[in-house]
Amino acid sequence: MFRTGVSGAEGGTPSRAQVVHHPMRGNGLAPYPYRLSMYQVPPVQDITVEEFEQWALDRLRVLADIETAAARNQSWPETKAAIEARSAAHLPLHSNSVAQSGTASGAAAKTQELLAERRKDHVSHFVLRLAFSRTDELRRRFLHAETTLFRWKWETEHLAEREAFLRSQDFVWRAVPAEQQQRFREQLLAVHPRMAATFDTESFVQVPWHRVPDLVEKRRVFVHQGTAWIPTKEQTSLVLAEFQSGLQAQLELTARALPRLDEDDRLMPVLEHLSMGSMLGATSDYSSASLVNTDGEAITLTADMVVPLVRQHAPLCMRHLQETLSAKHHLLHQSRLQYNLFLKELGLPVEEALVFWRRSFSQMTDDQFKSHRYNIRHGYGLEGGRHNYPARSCTTIISGFPPGPQETHGCPFRHFSQANLSAALSTHYHISPADQAEILASVQAGHYHVACTRVFELTHAAQGVRRGDGLGQGESVSHPNRYTEASWQRAQQATTDA
Ligand code: SF4
């Protein structure tokens, strides 16, 4: 157990703005009276190291979906749907109204649930804030994802709850005096022509113009002497701007305090792991499931089935390994590890795996194959420490040992040169130059899983997969086995429909 307080990292004693965080203790939800939070006060409570990491990973799943939605240019309704689904599973956050219905004992239980949800939200935000404050790039990505998450919470919150939350905050908005509003009537109406009939009943607030760059950029606001005049109705932009600028400042303060954490050998590996996952924009939820036939029965793979299955359904990383194995009759150590665990988790029994590998290593003597036999069985948990090793996820493959000369493991989207990737996309999938350009742009932006997801969509278009569908319902690629399973399911579905 350890305490999560990082007040040093937040710049010391909270300011006046920070301590107004919990004024409505009377609603029985202290210290979390609202579902919305500006995260101004760091948590100071005991939690376990497991909670510290697990809660952060759960939040990271939501943020990764937000990043993926942005990288795939998804609309706001699509992004909202993705956040909704992922939050429900990993970071549920219900409104206060949940605790106000039913019997007294039911309401008390609901109150405890709300408090537990909000505690997790609070702690996980601050853990990721630490993990993401390490570089400019991570700070930028965290800021965007957290602001988007806040926007979703804001838009899905009840009006009364929003207003109560706003009253609890200490925002620097100033009401525009009525006589000033009249004085600039013409300029204000030029920006808001639809207000012509209602102008005298409207009201405006003024904020420094740089707090609402989106409105200034779109010329949706009147700017006067460095202040932007915003209709009180456009509260969402204002609140988002407050959230964003507050978090940006806090991230910079946290970054300055980070060296002080370097000595904590419990926290630093966790924070590094979290920020690495975030760089890849994907976290995997995959747990192995057998491939099933059209009757829904699990199929047992045989050695003979491996090559056609991989050529038809596996992602480029595994396809590349198989093509290299077929051409050279050999794979180097890391490649063997990556491929063996992939095939194991697809449902290839160890006896069939030994047949497959022995045949593939056709230029080797039985004696030379002995050590490989041991390593294959080791991967199945049948030798040595008998660990049941999982198949590698995209995050593990992309962030693991990069392939050296002659090596073929890794992720082609991460580790191939542009020319080689382009050639592989043409050779294996016949992807057009225009589609390749889009895939290569995702790769250049570091969104490897987005590029891989687009390849899945393009190569399954004949089965009705469209842009934005991903592996199904917008799911992005996060695991080679999940990719293969989704491709297999599509083919089975097509057979059933035919
Ligand atoms: Fe394989 Fe994942 Fe890379 Fe796709 S993104 S090629 S599944 S490692």
Automatic annotation (TrEMBL):
Pfam families: DNA_primase_lrg (PF04104), DNA_primase_lrg_N (PF26466). CDD domains: PriL_PriS_Eukaryotic. Binds 1 [4Fe-4S] cluster. It comes from the Eukaryota. Residues 475-498 have a biased composition (Polar residues). InterPro entries: DNA_primase_C, DNA_primase_lsu_euk, DNA_primase_lsu_euk/arc. Residues 309-483 form the DNA primase large subunit C-terminal domain. One of its GO terms (cellular component) is alpha DNA polymerase:primase complex. Its cofactor is [4Fe-4S] cluster. Keywords: 4Fe-4S, DNA replication, DNA-binding, Hydrolase, Iron, Iron-sulfur, Metal-binding, Primosome. Residues 1-24, 467-498 are annotated as: Disordered. GO terms for molecular function: 4 iron, 4 sulfur cluster binding; DNA binding; hydrolase activity; metal ion binding. [4Fe-4S] cluster binds at residues 317, 394, 411, 452. GO terms for biological process: DNA replication initiation; DNA replication, synthesis of primer. Belongs to the eukaryotic-type primase large subunit family. DNA primase is the polymerase that synthesizes small RNA primers for the Okazaki fragments made during discontinuous DNA replication. This is DNA primase large subunit. It comes from Malassezia equina. The lineage of its organism: Eukaryota, Fungi, Dikarya, Basidiomycota, Ustilaginomycotina.
